[in-house]
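hey so u asked for the seq, here:
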Amino acid sequence: MKNRFWLILVLGISGVTVAGCTPLLVGAAGVVVVDEVMERKQGGDGLF
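ran it, structure tokens below
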């Protein structure tokens, strides 16, 4: 019973944490895509 309580607590906290980090992950993925497009379009190193 005690283990189940801790499992539910950890899953709840991790769900909130992942939801809070989603904009950061989406933004980072967007930067990678834009950099790749700029590399293909202009050649060289792209944006970074």
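Residues 10 and 16 are 10 Å apart (CA to CA). The chain has one domain: 1-42.
lmk if thats what u needed
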